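Title: Comparing notes on inverse folding

I've been comparing how different people in this forum approach sequence design from structure. To keep things fair, I'm posting one structure and asking everyone to reply with a full sequence. Here's the target:
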């Protein structure tokens, strides 16, 4: 967030202590400290319910990832 400070005659940007992020499933704004974070996909989630819904929508991606990590063709 930024605004114009007329006394200082310059644009001022406010940095919030709590960085807000958006849920990768429902798009809701979240306090970063309260989220689940998928390090691989770099997606935030509100809670387990949103993670489960997201996983349903991304089944193919998750299977690809799973196969790459866990399945070895002999
Ligand atoms: Zn959510």
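Reply #1:
Here's my take.
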């Amino acid at each position: 967030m930024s605004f114009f400070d007329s006394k200082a005659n310059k644009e001022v940007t406010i940095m919030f202590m709590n960085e807000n992020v958006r849920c990768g499933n429902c798009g809701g704004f979240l306090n970063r400290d309260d989220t689940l974070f998928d390090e691989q996909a770099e997606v935030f989630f509100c809670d387990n319910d949103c993670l489960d819904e997201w996983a349903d929508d991304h089944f193919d991606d998750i299977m690809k990832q799973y196969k790459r990590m866990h399945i070895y063709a002999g």
